[in-house]
Design brief:
Layout: E1 15-17, E2 30-32, H1 50-58, H2 62-72, H3 82-106, H4 110-117, H5 126-140, H6 144-151, H7 155-182, H8 187-190, H9 199-208, H10 226-249, H11 253-277, H12 290-306
Antiparallel strand pairs: 1-2
Length: 310
């Protein structure tokens, strides 16, 4: 049943159509329903185009999330809207690109390794270079197998690996949140974790709020530093996930942060475990959970600043 996007009051319909020939996105032949409680239009986005929706999504307006989750895309029968399935596939492909690029940035290149390990015979300081090479090899010995394990595989196998990695990370992020919200917890825990029996709507909210993963399209126009842009995109996704959960569940920011943190921890564990099993030891940030790596790096800097890490 549709709701008013201003006060969440259920309404019988969002608009009344007077002419089938006119386009309701232009406001022709359509009369918006007035909410009986707040006396405002129940859903003004009915006659707005996708550009307005996108701008309001960037601004994290609760009304646009209610429009998408309750009046447009959300379904309570446990099935996904076809548009959400297409959006999920698109986000997965962009996630593959970002994760793959981050891991390649984190790994040492084979050309640089060859330049270090193979001194030229005409070099008069070849014996000194060989000593430096030995120390360099010992310092990078933990990363070289990781580099060769993936870089020497066929490109199709590399893509399949990162596709499975990102798919499992996405599942491990959604599944714990859906499971926790589907449980009827006892009274003390119910104040911390709300109950929501519609898992498909939860995943819809998480996918819609992850639209900022599409921002790397700007890399085709302007050149950015990939690690910095990936970190900014990941933090923007987390902020939007928290906002979407808070708007959907009306549970407050603190409980929404806890739910998002549960999913992020599970996703980080799955990504780290898969990469370690594949022999990739490039750190937590390479697992597609850049915000986790940022927090660890921030903690290390704070510990070093106060003298704990010395």
């Amino acid at each position: 049943m549709p709701i008013c996007i201003e006060c969440r009051y259920p309404v019988s319909s969002l608009y009344t159509t007077y002419s089938k020939a006119d386009d309701r996105t232009l406001g022709k032949g359509v009369r918006l329903t007035q909410c009986p409680r707040c006396k405002r239009f129940a859903d003004k986005y009915v006659e707005h185009d996708f550009v307005v929706l996108f701008i309001d999504l960037v601004l994290i307006k609760p009304q646009v999330y209610r429009h998408l989750l309750f009046n447009r895309l959300g379904r309570e029968d446990g099935r996904f809207n076809p548009s959400i399935i297409r959006l999920g596939v698109l986000l997965l492909l962009f996630d593959v690109y970002l994760t793959w690029a981050r891991i390649e940035e984190a790994m040492p290149s084979s050309s640089a390794t060859d330049a270090i390990s193979m001194p030229t015979p005409s070099d008069p300081f070849a014996h000194l270079t060989s000593n430096a090479t030995g120390s360099s090899d010992s310092s990078t010995s933990g990363l070289l197998p990781s580099s060769y394990l993936l870089s020497e595989q066929p490109i199709i196998l590399q893509y399949v690996f990162f596709l499975l990695l990102c798919a499992l990370e996405t599942i491990s992020f959604h599944l714990p949140i859906r499971t926790v919200l589907s449980l009827r917890l006892p009274r003390p825990l119910s104040y911390l974790i709300p109950h929501y029996p519609h898992p498909a709507v939860i995943s819809t909210a998480l996918l819609v709020s992850s639209f900022t993963k599409l921002f790397p399209l700007l890399l085709l126009i302007w050149k950015y530093d990939l690690p910095s842009s990936a970190s900014a995109v990941s933090w923007a996704v987390i902020i939007n996930n928290v906002a979407a959960l808070e708007i959907l569940l009306e549970c407050g920011v603190i409980r929404a942060v806890i739910l998002a943190a549960v999913g992020a921890v599970c996703r980080a564990g799955v990504g780290w475990g898969i990469l370690r099993a594949a022999g990739v030891g490039s750190g937590v940030a390479a697992a597609g959970v850049v915000e986790t790596g940022d927090l660890i790096e921030l903690w290390k800097r704070l510990a070093l600043h106060v003298g704990i890490g010395q």
